[in-house]
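quick one if you have a minute, typing this from the bus. below you get a single protein, a line of residues and a line of whole numbers that encode the local backbone shape. could you go over both lines and see whether the tokens make sense for that sequence. anything you notice is useful, everything is just below.
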Amino acid sequence: MSKEKETTVRVINLEMASNEDEDRLSNLHDSILITILCFLDPKEMIQTCLLSKRWRNLWRFVPCLNFSDKYLRNSRTHQLEGGDLERFRNFVSSFLLSRDNSANLHTFKLRHENSPHSMPWIHYAFSHNPKILDIFFLKVDMDCSFDVTNDLFSCASLEELSLGLCLWEEIVIDNVFLPKLRKMCFKFLSMNQDSLENFLSGCPALESLTFDFCKLNVNCIAFQTVKDLVLYGCEFTSQPPTFSICAPHLEYLEFFEDSKMRVKFKDTSKVKNAFVGGSKTLSFYYKCEYLSSLPGVEDLMIWGWCKERGTHNDLDVHQAVQLVVKSTCRMDRVKIVLED
């Protein structure tokens, strides 16, 4: 190696050595650092202020917040102890009060029990133009003045909403203003025909709708804009025990039915992907009847039992395939799951 090249190598090595102690992460733009903080929980966000002066106030501008008390709950009783409950509530309140009030929210998630303490947190979220809101109340305080319609169903910026109440008294939905809402998930709650229709009328952009373990006192409903529909573990309580669904733009259907209700699909010819399941008391033969309402389905998964409860006949894979093929003939792929 020539003397000139040796000098060049030494200079480069000296420059690298001088940069070893440089905090390159802190030199990134604020927007990048704030994006990194979005992946932390709120407690960890605050702890970053100890890194350096550069990080001291960044957490106050983070647009994605996730408050959950599940890690504080007793592993056996799943309950919060008195001291932990108070500390959690004080932390959330203090965090939101210390946050920069000019910074809008993108995502706000809350997993807690419904209480007077949680209402100001939700009001804070709504006043900061969130796009995604995920609320799951593990327990509902009936003495808490909580108006679902006024507090959760009126937000011009909201695009995705997930609501779990763990409440079996029917919620009343009157006035809904969610003009940008595209995705909605209801969990562990009960509603009637009027409330569901009122909700849909206030969501002109709704494309995805999920009901997880809900009680639905409805007989018929029309989903004019919905493209993805999931009904999982729901109990239909209407009389007579029939429920019809009209969804002219539906493309994806996931349906796990209980045996007490007979569901009819109307105007669902655009469905391309479907999952059809049900309880052990629901006949595989009956599940196949749904397929006649889905003439355009191309990708299907149908789930059933080898031994149909209430019968003495075993259902083998060959019989199952024959039933499915007889019901529809346009499929590119079908998956049949039979359990003992």
User: Anything to note?
Assistant: The first strand starts at residue 64 and ends at 68. The radius of gyration is 27 Å.
